[in-house]
Amino acid sequence: MINEHPGLERAREEEASNLTWHDMRVTKELRRNRNGHSSFVVWLTGLSGAGKSTIASALETRLFDMGLMTYVLDGDNVRMGLNANLGFSEEDRQENIRRVAEVSRLFVDAGIVTISSFISPLDADRVKARERFGEGEFIEVFIDCPVEECMKRDPKGLYQKAIAGEIKNFTGINAPYERPQDPEITLRTDQYTVDECVDTLVAYLKDRGLIFAR
Ligand SMILES: Nc1ncnc2c1ncn2[C@@H]1O[C@H](COP(=O)(O)OP(=O)(O)OP(=O)(O)O)[C@@H](O)[C@H]1O
Ligand SMILES: [Mg+2]
Fold first, then answer.
1. pTM tops 0.70, yes or no
2. Is 9 within a domain?
3. Are residues 11 and 17 in contact, defined by beta-carbon separation less than 8 angstroms?
4. Residue 162 is part of which domain span?
5. CA of 24 to the centre of ligand 2 (A)
6. Ligand 1 within 6 A of 111 CB?
7. Which ligand is nearest to the CA of 151?
8. 198 Cα–ligand 1 center, Å
9. 41, 23 Cβ separation under 8 angstroms
10. Count of CA atoms in the C-beta half-sphere (13 A) of 37
C-alpha cells in the first residue's frame, strides 16, 4: 500500500511497543510535486566486480544532468560509516541490507531518486527490502556478469585475496549469490558497455513514466 506508512503496520503488530507513528505535514507527495518528479529506488544487485558502482555513478550522472534530485547509496561507502560496525557474516550481511533498505526508503520518502548499489546476495533479503516500498517504487536491477569475467576484472584485487584464502565469506567464491528470481531489469555487463546499460535503465524509467525528458 503506497499511502500507508509501513511503520504503522509494524506499530500495530507491536501493540506493546509504546511507539506511535507521527505523520508529518510535508508528505512525500508534496515533495514530489515540488521536485517535479517521482521518487523511487533503483536497487542494483550482483557480484563484486559486476559493475554496480560503475553503473550507479553513470546512471546518477545522467539523471542528475536531467535535473533530477538523486543520490547513490553504495556498499563500501555505507560500510565505512553507517554500517561500520557490521562484518560479512550472514547475520551482519542481512542487517547491512535491512539498514540500507530503510535508508533507501527514507531517501525515497524525501523525494529523491535513490540508486542503491549492494551485492545483496540473498533473495530473502532483497524480497524484504522490496516489501518496504510501495508498488512500483522498487526497481530491482540484476547486474549480471559471469564470475569468471568478474575475476578477470578484479578491480579491487578481492578475488585474488579470496582465492588465496585471505577473505572468508566472499560472494561467488566461498559464499552464495542467489540470482534474482524476477528482477525488473537484467543488464549483462560483459556484453554491453556502461553507456548502453545506462541507456537501457533510462529508457525503462521513461517507459514507466517515472522520469520525463526535460
Ligand atoms: N558494462 C560495464 N558495466 C559496468 N562495469 C564495467 C562494464 N564493463 C567493464 N566494466 C568494469 O568492471 C569493473 C566493475 O567494478 P565496480 O567497482 O563497478 O563493481 P561492483 O559491482 O561495484 O563491485 P563491488 O561489489 O566489489 O563494489 C570496473 O572496473 C568497470 O570499469
Ligand atoms: Mg561497488
1. yes
2. no
3. yes
4. 37-207
5. 34
6. no
7. 1
8. 13
9. no
10. 22
For the Cβ of 99 lying below 6 angstroms from any atom of ligand 1, the answer is no
Q: Is 156 in the pocket of ligand 1 (CB under 6 A)?
A: yes
Measure Cα distances from 24 to 27, 43, 140, 173, 213 in Å: 6, 27, 29, 46, 31
Mean pLDDT of 93-102: 97
Is 172 touching ligand 1 by the criterion CB < 6 Å?
no
Residue 2 reports pLDDT greater than 60: no
Are the beta carbons of 185 and 139 closer than 8 angstroms? yes
Per the structure, the count of domains in the chain is 1
For residue 186, report the phi and psi dihedrals to the nearest 5 degrees: -120, 130
- Measured in angstroms, how far is the CA atom of residue 76 from the centroid of ligand 2? 7
Task: Give the position, in ligand 1's atom list, of the atom nearest the Cα of 192.
Answer: 1
Domain harbouring 117, CATH code: 3.40.50.300
Q: Is 156 inside any structural domain?
A: yes
What does the DSSP 8-state code read for residue 1? -
Collapsed DSSP state (helix, strand, coil) of residue 178: coil
For residue 161, pLDDT over 60 is answered with: yes
Using DSSP, state whether 198 is helix, strand or coil. helix
13 belongs to a structural domain: no
